[in-house]
Amino acid sequence: SISAAFWDHLRRLGLQDFPCGLGSWNESRFDAHGRPCRGQPGLGADPAGQEEAMPLGEESPDALVELLRDWHSPWALPPGCTAQDQHLREMAVLTPELLRGSNIFQVLRSLRIVGKGVEEVDEGLLQLQQLEELILSANQISRITSAHLPRTLKVLELCCNAVADLQDLCAQPPPELQHLGLGYNRLCGPSQNKYLTADFWPNLVSLDLSFNNFTDLLELVSQLSSLQKLRILLLQGNPLALIPTYRGFLMDSLPKLSILDDIHIGPDERHQFRGLARQPELIRSEARVVVSVGEIKGVPDPSAHQQLEAGSEAPVITYSYCVTYEF
């Protein structure tokens, strides 16, 4: 579950272990509850003065933070962590009382759990009441229930999972969501098109539907046209992207788009396709695919066999092959 992966991630950060948290290395600076003791140098004090005031066996805040920032240090940030993870660790040095117990739930704004085998987004996520960004790429999520998502979310990234149905996600979607990433999943139309409207995502600015199985361009565009704030759209990798008039029809149908498939839409290109949205008859339901075979390995080369002499009684061996293409 996402909760289990979250706690594993926190343990990996070591927020309660040296040089973070509370211990013999900073006990004179904090009381038993982790609050700063009176008379101790503040965060803006002179570092040299702090060094002089440190009791024997303790380290100054600057020295502890430097252990976290130095990439050669044994306490450097583990691989795959984010800038926010580093910020949390420095907070655990300077103000450890803010990260004790359930306090950390009020601090986190972003959570990145990538490639951890997460299958379930459980209700434990609701404890993160200030969460704005949730990155869950490259996991094994097939279903996500919106009731388990914090209402404060603005970014939800689910790239490279196994999501095939958006019904549960759209039951109570986060109202302020601005980016929804669903690339490299198992979505297909027309059953999922109805969930891609302003009724569910009124503030959506960026939408990634790349590398799914959407095939009906006209139907999809009719739903996306309700997203008045949409500026960035990714549809590459879907079968509908093979339609010859695909890019021009999308640009003219969604005039507020500024980026389509990671390519900026310039005024000249938009002018070139003006009026195409009023000619749906140009949208063909089939695409032409050219397959070129450059080399086949493991098949005997007929030209390498010597020709049999005239009148020879040696047996003649023939070969035949069948090549199948599956789309």
TrEMBL record:
GO cellular component, one term: cytoplasm
Chain intervals for the UniProt region annotation (Disordered): 36-56
Coiled-coil boundaries: none
PROSITE patterns assigned to the protein according to its UniProt record, in alphabetical order: LRR
Keywords of the record: Leucine-rich repeat, Repeat
Gene3D superfamilies for the chain: Ribonuclease Inhibitor (3.80.10.10)
InterPro entries per record: Leu-rich_rpt, Leu-rich_rpt_typical-subtyp, LRR_dom_sf
PANTHER family with a match to the protein in the record: LEUCINE-RICH REPEAT-CONTAINING PROTEIN 51 (PTHR15454:SF19), NISCHARIN RELATED (PTHR15454)
Protein name: LRC43 protein
Organism: Bucorvus abyssinicus
Taxonomic lineage: Eukaryota, Metazoa, Chordata, Craniata, Vertebrata
This protein's encoding gene: Lrrc43
